[in-house]
Write a structure and sequence with these properties.
The strands form 2 sheets. An 8-stranded mixed beta sheet has the order 3-2-1-4-5-6-14-15, with helices on both faces. A 7-stranded mixed beta sheet has the order 9-8-7-10-11-13-12, with helices on both faces. The chain has 2 domains: 179 residues, 3-Layer(aba) Sandwich (Rossmann fold); 174 residues, NAD(P)-binding Rossmann-like Domain (Rossmann fold), CATH 3.40.50. The protein is globular. Helix 5 packs parallel to helix 6. The chain is built from 14 helices and 15 strands. The mean pLDDT is 95. By secondary structure, it is an alpha/beta fold.
Length: 379
């Protein structure tokens, strides 16, 4: 199979979807890997390392798409890439379609088979391809917040750790999943008083056992959330509903009650955001202010640390890429239920129900296509 690895073109997206080690594994298995020139440069990976690993370096974006049966990316295709997609082509990347109607309709109209990293889901509910970037984004959220709390960056001029005789900052993390746990770990390490809200009491019990420091856990409900947000110097939005649009659990009224110079980092923004005042931003223009509160809502936070992120992502995605390349689409998703759950669009239809519901589109279960494919015809 021809596997294409294009250069990412999203604003300041420095990651690349495949490391040389991943390329080497695919080439050893008999596949051709087409890497667009300079695709890995911003992650510190020159073309020569890909070439040594066995990749074919192609000169253009169009070539990385056009010659590939399977296109492996980091972020969703942008409008200028839509015409590069073709029927029956496999696209494997972060898609977050429930927050992007235009891309959803484009993938349907073009007959692409689109598999979303974020909805590949094991039978126990784990999201193996979302975890590594959630770990990065959760940890980065606190260093970002600390930066914007500095007075020269428009913040309240507070040190999250405090000093003897001065209390530490207040960090409130809404959501106790992978992003929330990693944000809490860094927050506690900095010395801030950290509050984690979640609806799952078992998750709160777990976090209470494994996290150490100045930690408070609260059952998430509108009153607890409002009270916690009102006293926060930093709010981290870390709510996740796999594959669906994130509910807005922090209202504009709650944000208005925060102190001027406080900071909101909504990590959930790529699924629509869990803060009502959140709207997508970019690394070029990362922040804006609402009611005196700084909002950081970059949709590709891990892109700022591409060397770490690229390696972590390939570690997780490579087994699935290899499965698709070795078996082909139908056999791979037929044998791996986690991968099958990742299929969002196939055969001109939406095959992931939360995405179909988000935009009022027809939903067709992937199993219908696979069954039809395997059913013998009679003359």
């Amino acid at each position: 199979m021809n596997v294409g690895v294009p250069r990412e073109i999203k604003d300041n997206e420095y990651r690349v979807a495949m490391t040389p080690a991943g390329v080497h594994t695919l080439v050893e298995a008999g596949h051709t890997v087409l890497v667009e020139t300079q695709a890995g440069a911003s992650s510190g990976i020159p073309d020569e390392r890909y070439r040594v690993a066995g990749a074919k370096i192609v000169p253009t974006h169009a070539a990385a798409f056009g010659e590939a049966n399977l296109v492996v990316k980091v972020k969703e295709p942008l409008p200028e890439e839509y015409d590069l997609l073709r029927p029956s082509q496999l696209l494997f990347t972060y898609l977050h379609l429930a927050a992007n109607e235009d891309l959803t309709r484009q993938l349907v109209a073009r007959g692409v088979t689109a598999i979303a990293y974020e909805t590949v889901q094991a039978s126990d509910g784990a999201l193996p391809l979302l975890v590594p970037m959630s770990e990065v984004a959760g940890r980065m959220a606190l260093q970002i917040a600390a930066h914007y709390l500095e007075r020269e960056n428009g913040g309240a001029g507070k040190l999250l750790a405090g000093v003897p005789g001065v209390p530490p900052g207040e960090v409130v993390i809404v959501g106790g999943g992978v992003v929330g746990a990693n944000a809490a770990q860094i927050s506690l390490g900095l010395g801030a008083h950290t509050t984690v809200l979640d609806r799952n009491l078992e998750r709160l019990r777990y976090l209470d056992l494994v996290l150490h420091g100045n930690l408070t856990t609260l059952a998430a409900n509108p009153l607890h959330t409002a009270e916690a947000v009102a006293r926060a110097d930093v709010v981290v939005g870390a709510v996740l509903v796999p594959g669906a649009r994130t509910p807005r659990v922090v209202t504009r009224g709650m944000v208005a009650n925060m102190r001027p110079g406080s900071v909101v980092v909504d990590v959930a923004i790529d699924q629509g955001g869990c803060v009502e005042t959140a709207r997508p931003t970019t690394h070029s223009h990362p922040t804006y202010v609402v009611d005196g509160v700084i909002h950081y809502c970059v949709t590709n936070i891990p892109g700022a640390v591409p060397n770490t992120s690229t390696v972590a992502l390939t570690n997780a995605t490579l087994p699935y890429v290899l499965e698709l390349a070795n078996r082909g689409f139908e056999a791979a998703v037929g044998a791996d239920s986690a991968l099958a759950r990742g299929v969002n669009v196939h055969g001109g239809c939406v095959t992931y129900q939360p995405v179909a519901e988000a935009f009022g589109l027809e939903y067709r279960a992937l199993a219908e296509f696979l069954k039809r494919k395997s059913t013998p015809t009679t003359a």
